[in-house]
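FAQ

Q: What does a record look like?
A: Structure on top, sequence underneath. For example:
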Protein backbone atom coordinates (compact mmCIF):
# COMPACT_ATOMS: atom_id res chain seq x y z
CA UNK A 1 0.00 0.00 0.00
CA UNK A 2 1.02 3.59 -0.51
CA UNK A 3 2.64 5.28 2.46
CA UNK A 4 1.28 8.18 4.46
CA UNK A 5 2.30 11.80 4.59
CA UNK A 6 2.45 14.25 7.47
CA UNK A 7 -0.07 17.06 7.44
CA UNK A 8 -0.09 19.51 10.35
CA UNK A 9 1.68 16.98 12.53
CA UNK A 10 -0.86 14.24 11.78
CA UNK A 11 -0.53 11.29 9.47
CA UNK A 12 -3.31 11.03 6.91
CA UNK A 13 -3.73 8.70 3.94
CA UNK A 14 -1.91 10.15 0.96
CA UNK A 15 -4.90 9.83 -1.36
CA UNK A 16 -6.71 12.49 0.69
CA UNK A 17 -4.26 15.08 -0.62
CA UNK A 18 -6.35 14.99 -3.79
CA UNK A 19 -8.95 17.72 -3.17
CA UNK A 20 -11.62 16.14 -5.36
CA UNK A 21 -11.24 12.75 -3.71
CA UNK A 22 -11.27 14.33 -0.25
CA UNK A 23 -14.61 15.97 -1.07
CA UNK A 24 -15.99 12.68 -2.37
CA UNK A 25 -14.81 10.90 0.78
CA UNK A 26 -16.61 13.45 2.95
CA UNK A 27 -19.80 13.01 0.97
CA UNK A 28 -19.41 9.23 1.19
CA UNK A 29 -19.13 9.51 4.98
CA UNK A 30 -22.47 11.32 5.18
CA UNK A 31 -24.30 9.12 2.68
CA UNK A 32 -23.14 5.91 4.39
CA UNK A 33 -24.43 7.23 7.70
CA UNK A 34 -27.78 7.65 6.00
CA UNK A 35 -27.58 4.20 4.42
CA UNK A 36 -27.05 2.61 7.83
CA UNK A 37 -30.13 4.44 9.10
CA UNK A 38 -32.08 3.05 6.14
CA UNK A 39 -31.00 -0.56 6.81
CA UNK A 40 -31.79 -0.30 10.53
CA UNK A 41 -35.09 1.44 9.80
CA UNK A 42 -36.23 -1.25 7.35
CA UNK A 43 -35.24 -4.05 9.74
CA UNK A 44 -37.05 -2.39 12.66
CA UNK A 45 -40.21 -1.87 10.60
CA UNK A 46 -40.14 -5.42 9.24
CA UNK A 47 -39.46 -7.04 12.63
CA UNK A 48 -41.89 -4.85 14.54
CA UNK A 49 -44.31 -7.78 14.81
CA UNK A 50 -41.47 -10.18 15.76
CA UNK A 51 -42.04 -12.18 12.58
CA UNK A 52 -38.91 -14.03 11.44
CA UNK A 53 -40.42 -14.40 7.97
CA UNK A 54 -40.96 -10.65 7.62
CA UNK A 55 -37.35 -10.02 8.64
CA UNK A 56 -36.02 -12.65 6.22
CA UNK A 57 -38.05 -11.14 3.37
CA UNK A 58 -36.66 -7.70 4.18
CA UNK A 59 -33.09 -9.08 4.16
CA UNK A 60 -33.63 -11.00 0.90
CA UNK A 61 -34.86 -7.86 -0.79
CA UNK A 62 -31.60 -6.14 0.11
CA UNK A 63 -29.51 -8.72 -1.76
CA UNK A 64 -31.67 -10.30 -4.49
CA UNK A 65 -32.24 -7.10 -6.54
CA UNK A 66 -28.54 -6.21 -6.30
CA UNK A 67 -27.61 -9.73 -7.45
CA UNK A 68 -30.02 -9.51 -10.37
CA UNK A 69 -28.73 -6.13 -11.54
CA UNK A 70 -25.01 -6.89 -10.99
CA UNK A 71 -24.12 -7.86 -14.59
CA UNK A 72 -26.03 -4.89 -16.00
CA UNK A 73 -24.51 -2.50 -13.45
CA UNK A 74 -20.99 -3.49 -14.51
CA UNK A 75 -21.77 -2.94 -18.18
CA UNK A 76 -23.44 0.42 -17.48
CA UNK A 77 -20.45 1.58 -15.42
CA UNK A 78 -18.15 0.82 -18.36
CA UNK A 79 -20.43 2.15 -21.12
CA UNK A 80 -21.81 5.38 -19.60
CA UNK A 81 -20.17 8.40 -18.02
CA UNK A 82 -19.81 7.29 -14.40
CA UNK A 83 -20.40 10.73 -12.90
CA UNK A 84 -23.75 11.02 -14.70
CA UNK A 85 -24.72 7.49 -13.70
CA UNK A 86 -23.96 8.29 -10.06
CA UNK A 87 -25.96 11.53 -10.20
CA UNK A 88 -28.98 9.62 -11.47
CA UNK A 89 -28.63 6.78 -8.95
CA UNK A 90 -28.10 9.04 -5.91
CA UNK A 91 -30.97 11.32 -6.93
CA UNK A 92 -33.29 8.33 -7.34
CA UNK A 93 -32.35 6.90 -3.94
CA UNK A 94 -32.92 10.26 -2.31
CA UNK A 95 -36.45 10.36 -3.71
CA UNK A 96 -37.19 6.77 -2.71
CA UNK A 97 -36.02 7.45 0.86
CA UNK A 98 -38.49 10.31 1.21
CA UNK A 99 -41.27 8.06 -0.12
CA UNK A 100 -40.43 5.61 2.70
CA UNK A 101 -40.42 8.51 5.16
CA UNK A 102 -43.89 9.61 4.02
CA UNK A 103 -45.34 6.08 4.21
CA UNK A 104 -43.97 5.57 7.73
CA UNK A 105 -45.06 9.06 8.82
CA UNK A 106 -48.56 8.36 7.47
CA UNK A 107 -48.65 5.04 9.41
CA UNK A 108 -48.96 3.04 6.16
CA UNK A 109 -46.11 0.72 7.22
CA UNK A 110 -47.81 -0.32 10.46
CA UNK A 111 -48.41 -4.08 10.50
CA UNK A 112 -52.15 -3.61 10.94
CA UNK A 113 -52.34 -1.42 7.82
CA UNK A 114 -53.58 -3.17 4.64
CA UNK A 115 -50.76 -4.25 2.33
CA UNK A 116 -48.02 -2.62 4.45
CA UNK A 117 -45.66 -5.40 3.41
CA UNK A 118 -46.29 -4.85 -0.31
CA UNK A 119 -45.41 -1.16 -0.05
CA UNK A 120 -42.25 -1.80 1.97
CA UNK A 121 -40.99 -4.68 -0.14
CA UNK A 122 -41.81 -3.02 -3.48
CA UNK A 123 -39.77 0.02 -2.47
CA UNK A 124 -36.97 -2.25 -1.29
CA UNK A 125 -36.80 -3.91 -4.71
CA UNK A 126 -36.42 -0.56 -6.46
CA UNK A 127 -33.90 0.65 -3.84
CA UNK A 128 -31.92 -2.59 -4.21
CA UNK A 129 -31.76 -2.35 -8.00
CA UNK A 130 -30.65 1.28 -7.84
CA UNK A 131 -28.11 0.58 -5.09
CA UNK A 132 -26.61 -2.23 -7.15
CA UNK A 133 -25.94 0.18 -10.02
CA UNK A 134 -24.64 2.88 -7.65
CA UNK A 135 -22.20 0.61 -5.77
CA UNK A 136 -20.50 -0.66 -8.92
CA UNK A 137 -20.32 2.76 -10.59
CA UNK A 138 -19.02 4.42 -7.42
CA UNK A 139 -16.14 1.94 -7.00
CA UNK A 140 -15.08 2.43 -10.62
CA UNK A 141 -15.49 6.22 -10.34
CA UNK A 142 -13.05 6.37 -7.40
CA UNK A 143 -10.38 4.66 -9.48
CA UNK A 144 -11.01 7.05 -12.36
CA UNK A 145 -10.72 10.07 -10.05
CA UNK A 146 -7.32 9.49 -8.41
CA UNK A 147 -3.86 8.95 -9.87
CA UNK A 148 -2.55 5.36 -10.23
CA UNK A 149 0.13 6.10 -7.63
CA UNK A 150 -2.41 6.39 -4.80
CA UNK A 151 -5.06 4.11 -6.25
CA UNK A 152 -4.84 1.26 -3.74
CA UNK A 153 -4.73 3.71 -0.84
CA UNK A 154 -7.81 5.48 -2.22
CA UNK A 155 -9.70 2.17 -2.28
CA UNK A 156 -8.87 1.55 1.37
CA UNK A 157 -9.73 5.14 2.34
CA UNK A 158 -13.06 4.85 0.56
CA UNK A 159 -13.81 1.79 2.68
CA UNK A 160 -12.64 3.61 5.80
CA UNK A 161 -14.92 6.62 5.36
CA UNK A 162 -17.82 4.32 4.50
CA UNK A 163 -17.33 2.46 7.77
CA UNK A 164 -16.93 5.74 9.67
CA UNK A 165 -20.24 6.84 8.23
CA UNK A 166 -21.82 3.60 9.39
CA UNK A 167 -20.57 4.31 12.92
CA UNK A 168 -22.27 7.70 12.83
CA UNK A 169 -25.38 6.18 11.26
CA UNK A 170 -25.61 3.46 13.89
CA UNK A 171 -25.21 5.92 16.75
CA UNK A 172 -27.76 8.34 15.30
CA UNK A 173 -30.15 5.51 14.47
CA UNK A 174 -30.31 4.42 18.09
CA UNK A 175 -31.44 7.93 19.07
CA UNK A 176 -33.70 8.52 16.05
CA UNK A 177 -35.44 5.15 16.44
CA UNK A 178 -36.29 6.03 20.05
CA UNK A 179 -38.13 9.10 18.73
CA UNK A 180 -39.78 7.78 15.58
CA UNK A 181 -38.89 5.32 12.82
CA UNK A 182 -39.82 7.82 10.12
CA UNK A 183 -36.86 10.01 11.19
CA UNK A 184 -34.52 7.21 10.08
CA UNK A 185 -35.83 7.44 6.53
CA UNK A 186 -35.84 11.25 6.55
CA UNK A 187 -32.19 11.28 7.62
CA UNK A 188 -31.32 8.80 4.87
CA UNK A 189 -32.96 11.00 2.24
CA UNK A 190 -31.19 14.14 3.42
CA UNK A 191 -27.81 12.34 3.48
CA UNK A 192 -27.69 12.22 -0.34
CA UNK A 193 -27.65 15.99 -0.76
CA UNK A 194 -23.91 16.50 -0.16
CA UNK A 195 -23.00 13.63 -2.52
CA UNK A 196 -25.14 15.15 -5.27
CA UNK A 197 -23.40 18.52 -4.85
CA UNK A 198 -19.93 16.93 -4.95
CA UNK A 199 -20.77 14.86 -8.04
CA UNK A 200 -22.26 17.87 -9.79
CA UNK A 201 -18.94 19.72 -9.49
CA UNK A 202 -16.67 16.70 -10.13
CA UNK A 203 -14.49 16.83 -13.24
CA UNK A 204 -13.78 13.09 -13.34
CA UNK A 205 -16.20 10.58 -14.82
CA UNK A 206 -17.66 12.86 -17.48
CA UNK A 207 -16.34 10.77 -20.38
CA UNK A 208 -17.52 7.31 -21.40
CA UNK A 209 -14.83 4.69 -20.58
CA UNK A 210 -15.50 2.74 -23.78
CA UNK A 211 -15.93 3.99 -27.36
CA UNK A 212 -19.42 4.21 -28.79
CA UNK A 213 -20.64 0.86 -30.08
CA UNK A 214 -18.67 -1.29 -27.63
CA UNK A 215 -21.23 -3.47 -25.85
CA UNK A 216 -18.99 -4.10 -22.80
CA UNK A 217 -19.61 -7.86 -22.58
CA UNK A 218 -19.11 -9.51 -19.19
CA UNK A 219 -17.08 -12.22 -20.92
CA UNK A 220 -14.19 -9.75 -21.34
CA UNK A 221 -13.96 -9.31 -17.55
CA UNK A 222 -14.10 -13.07 -16.95
CA UNK A 223 -11.37 -13.65 -19.53
CA UNK A 224 -9.22 -11.10 -17.70
CA UNK A 225 -9.75 -12.90 -14.35
CA UNK A 226 -9.06 -16.32 -15.93
CA UNK A 227 -5.66 -15.21 -17.20
CA UNK A 228 -2.89 -17.34 -15.62
CA UNK A 229 -1.32 -14.26 -14.03
CA UNK A 230 -4.60 -13.43 -12.24
CA UNK A 231 -4.72 -16.53 -10.00
CA UNK A 232 -4.76 -14.34 -6.88
CA UNK A 233 -7.94 -12.66 -8.11
CA UNK A 234 -9.60 -16.05 -8.53
CA UNK A 235 -8.48 -17.12 -5.05
CA UNK A 236 -9.75 -13.84 -3.57
CA UNK A 237 -13.20 -14.44 -5.09
CA UNK A 238 -13.25 -18.02 -3.76
CA UNK A 239 -12.15 -17.07 -0.25
CA UNK A 240 -14.46 -14.05 -0.10
CA UNK A 241 -17.46 -16.06 -1.26
CA UNK A 242 -16.73 -18.73 1.35
CA UNK A 243 -16.39 -16.35 4.28
CA UNK A 244 -19.56 -14.53 3.21
CA UNK A 245 -21.60 -17.75 3.46
CA UNK A 246 -20.36 -18.63 6.95
CA UNK A 247 -19.91 -15.22 8.55
CA UNK A 248 -21.77 -12.37 6.85
CA UNK A 249 -25.23 -13.10 8.29
CA UNK A 250 -25.63 -10.06 10.55
CA UNK A 251 -28.74 -8.66 8.90
CA UNK A 252 -30.73 -11.62 10.24
CA UNK A 253 -28.79 -12.53 13.38
CA UNK A 254 -28.11 -9.07 14.81
CA UNK A 255 -31.83 -8.22 15.25
CA UNK A 256 -32.56 -11.73 16.58
CA UNK A 257 -29.66 -11.67 19.04
CA UNK A 258 -30.39 -8.10 20.10
CA UNK A 259 -34.12 -8.61 20.62
CA UNK A 260 -34.20 -12.14 22.10
CA UNK A 261 -30.81 -12.76 23.73
CA UNK A 262 -29.53 -9.36 24.84
CA UNK A 263 -32.51 -7.25 25.83
CA UNK A 264 -34.46 -5.69 22.97
CA UNK A 265 -34.43 -2.96 20.32
CA UNK A 266 -31.74 -0.85 21.99
CA UNK A 267 -29.42 -3.87 22.21
CA UNK A 268 -29.84 -4.38 18.46
CA UNK A 269 -28.85 -0.80 17.62
CA UNK A 270 -25.88 -1.08 20.00
CA UNK A 271 -24.74 -4.23 18.20
CA UNK A 272 -24.99 -2.37 14.90
CA UNK A 273 -22.84 0.39 16.39
CA UNK A 274 -20.22 -2.10 17.66
CA UNK A 275 -20.15 -3.73 14.23
CA UNK A 276 -19.61 -0.37 12.52
CA UNK A 277 -16.87 0.70 14.97
CA UNK A 278 -14.96 -2.53 14.40
CA UNK A 279 -15.28 -2.14 10.62
CA UNK A 280 -13.98 1.42 10.90
CA UNK A 281 -10.93 0.29 12.87
CA UNK A 282 -10.19 -2.41 10.31
CA UNK A 283 -10.40 -0.08 7.32
CA UNK A 284 -8.39 2.59 9.17
CA UNK A 285 -5.58 0.11 9.77
CA UNK A 286 -5.54 -0.85 6.09
CA UNK A 287 -5.47 2.78 4.97
CA UNK A 288 -2.55 3.74 7.25
CA UNK A 289 -0.36 0.64 7.46
CA UNK A 290 2.07 0.09 4.61
CA UNK A 291 1.22 -3.43 3.45
CA UNK A 292 0.00 -5.12 0.29
CA UNK A 293 -3.27 -7.00 -0.01
CA UNK A 294 -2.49 -10.70 -0.46
CA UNK A 295 -4.48 -13.93 -0.38
CA UNK A 296 -2.55 -15.03 2.72
CA UNK A 297 -3.57 -11.93 4.63
CA UNK A 298 -7.13 -12.35 3.34
CA UNK A 299 -7.29 -15.90 4.71
CA UNK A 300 -5.86 -14.78 8.07
CA UNK A 301 -8.50 -12.06 8.38
CA UNK A 302 -11.21 -14.59 7.51
CA UNK A 303 -10.20 -16.94 10.33
CA UNK A 304 -9.99 -13.95 12.69
CA UNK A 305 -13.52 -12.85 11.72
CA UNK A 306 -15.08 -16.30 12.06
CA UNK A 307 -13.40 -17.01 15.41
CA UNK A 308 -14.55 -13.80 17.12
CA UNK A 309 -18.05 -14.09 15.62
CA UNK A 310 -18.31 -17.50 17.29
CA UNK A 311 -17.40 -15.94 20.64
CA UNK A 312 -19.90 -13.13 20.03
CA UNK A 313 -22.68 -15.62 19.38
CA UNK A 314 -21.80 -17.67 22.46
CA UNK A 315 -21.76 -14.72 24.87
CA UNK A 316 -24.61 -14.05 27.30
CA UNK A 317 -23.36 -10.57 28.23
CA UNK A 318 -24.25 -7.52 26.09
CA UNK A 319 -20.88 -5.76 26.70
CA UNK A 320 -18.90 -8.92 25.90
CA UNK A 321 -21.01 -9.54 22.81
CA UNK A 322 -20.41 -5.97 21.61
CA UNK A 323 -16.63 -6.26 22.16
CA UNK A 324 -16.40 -9.62 20.35
CA UNK A 325 -18.54 -8.35 17.48
CA UNK A 326 -16.43 -5.22 17.19
CA UNK A 327 -13.19 -7.23 17.10
CA UNK A 328 -14.70 -9.61 14.52
CA UNK A 329 -15.74 -6.65 12.38
CA UNK A 330 -12.14 -5.44 12.21
CA UNK A 331 -11.50 -8.61 10.24
CA UNK A 332 -14.75 -8.27 8.30
CA UNK A 333 -13.77 -4.85 7.00
CA UNK A 334 -10.27 -6.03 6.12
CA UNK A 335 -11.77 -8.98 4.24
CA UNK A 336 -14.08 -6.91 2.05
CA UNK A 337 -11.51 -4.23 1.27
CA UNK A 338 -8.63 -6.66 0.65
CA UNK A 339 -10.66 -8.94 -1.62
CA UNK A 340 -11.85 -5.96 -3.65
CA UNK A 341 -8.31 -4.65 -4.09
CA UNK A 342 -6.92 -8.05 -5.13
CA UNK A 343 -9.65 -8.52 -7.75
CA UNK A 344 -9.25 -5.14 -9.49
CA UNK A 345 -5.59 -4.26 -8.82
CA UNK A 346 -3.80 -3.40 -12.07
CA UNK A 347 -6.95 -3.70 -14.21
CA UNK A 348 -7.54 -1.29 -17.14
CA UNK A 349 -10.08 1.49 -16.62
CA UNK A 350 -12.51 0.16 -19.24
CA UNK A 351 -12.90 -3.13 -17.29
CA UNK A 352 -13.34 -1.72 -13.79
CA UNK A 353 -17.13 -1.60 -13.80
CA UNK A 354 -17.48 -5.22 -14.85
CA UNK A 355 -14.79 -6.43 -12.45
CA UNK A 356 -16.50 -4.68 -9.56
CA UNK A 357 -19.79 -6.23 -10.62
CA UNK A 358 -18.19 -9.71 -10.49
CA UNK A 359 -16.91 -8.96 -6.99
CA UNK A 360 -20.31 -7.53 -6.01
CA UNK A 361 -22.18 -10.51 -7.37
CA UNK A 362 -20.03 -12.85 -5.25
CA UNK A 363 -20.79 -10.65 -2.25
CA UNK A 364 -24.56 -10.53 -2.83
CA UNK A 365 -24.89 -14.29 -3.42
CA UNK A 366 -22.74 -15.15 -0.42
CA UNK A 367 -24.49 -12.81 1.98
CA UNK A 368 -27.95 -13.84 0.76
CA UNK A 369 -27.05 -17.50 1.32
CA UNK A 370 -25.56 -16.63 4.73
CA UNK A 371 -28.67 -14.89 5.99
CA UNK A 372 -31.03 -17.58 4.65
CA UNK A 373 -28.89 -20.25 6.32
CA UNK A 374 -28.87 -18.31 9.59
CA UNK A 375 -32.66 -17.89 9.49
CA UNK A 376 -33.18 -21.60 8.80
CA UNK A 377 -30.91 -22.70 11.65
CA UNK A 378 -32.45 -20.14 14.02
CA UNK A 379 -35.96 -21.39 13.19
CA UNK A 380 -35.00 -25.06 13.56
CA UNK A 381 -32.37 -25.17 16.29
CA UNK A 382 -32.59 -21.77 17.95
CA UNK A 383 -30.87 -18.40 17.72
CA UNK A 384 -27.90 -19.42 19.87
CA UNK A 385 -27.16 -22.40 17.62
CA UNK A 386 -27.34 -20.20 14.52
CA UNK A 387 -25.02 -17.64 16.10
CA UNK A 388 -22.32 -20.18 17.03
CA UNK A 389 -22.44 -23.36 14.97
CA UNK A 390 -22.35 -21.72 11.54
CA UNK A 391 -19.31 -19.55 12.25
CA UNK A 392 -17.55 -22.39 14.09
CA UNK A 393 -17.96 -24.52 10.97
CA UNK A 394 -16.62 -21.54 9.02
CA UNK A 395 -13.41 -21.54 11.09
CA UNK A 396 -12.81 -25.18 10.13
CA UNK A 397 -13.56 -24.69 6.43
CA UNK A 398 -11.44 -21.53 6.17
CA UNK A 399 -8.49 -23.16 7.95
CA UNK A 400 -8.71 -26.08 5.53
CA UNK A 401 -8.89 -23.69 2.58
CA UNK A 402 -5.87 -21.79 3.91
CA UNK A 403 -3.85 -24.98 4.35
CA UNK A 404 -4.66 -26.03 0.79
CA UNK A 405 -3.62 -22.63 -0.56
CA UNK A 406 -0.31 -22.68 1.31
CA UNK A 407 0.50 -26.22 0.19
CA UNK A 408 -0.40 -25.37 -3.39
CA UNK A 409 1.73 -22.21 -3.30
CA UNK A 410 4.74 -24.10 -1.91
CA UNK A 411 4.45 -26.87 -4.49
CA UNK A 412 4.35 -24.31 -7.31
CA UNK A 413 7.28 -22.31 -5.95
CA UNK A 414 9.25 -25.50 -5.39
Amino acid sequence: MVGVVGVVGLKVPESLRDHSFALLAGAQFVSQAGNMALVIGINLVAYRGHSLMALVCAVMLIYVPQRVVAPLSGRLADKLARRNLLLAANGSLMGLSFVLWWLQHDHQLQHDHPLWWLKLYALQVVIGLTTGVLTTAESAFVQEMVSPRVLVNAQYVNGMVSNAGQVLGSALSSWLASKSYDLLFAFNGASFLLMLLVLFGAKAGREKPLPKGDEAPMSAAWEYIKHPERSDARWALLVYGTVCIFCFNGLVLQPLIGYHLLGGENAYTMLALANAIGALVGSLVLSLVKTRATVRWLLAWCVWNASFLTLYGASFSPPVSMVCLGIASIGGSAIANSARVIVVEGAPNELLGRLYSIYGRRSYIGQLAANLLAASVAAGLGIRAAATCITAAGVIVLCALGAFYLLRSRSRSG
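Q: Is there anything notable about this one?
A: The first strand starts at residue 4 and ends at 7.
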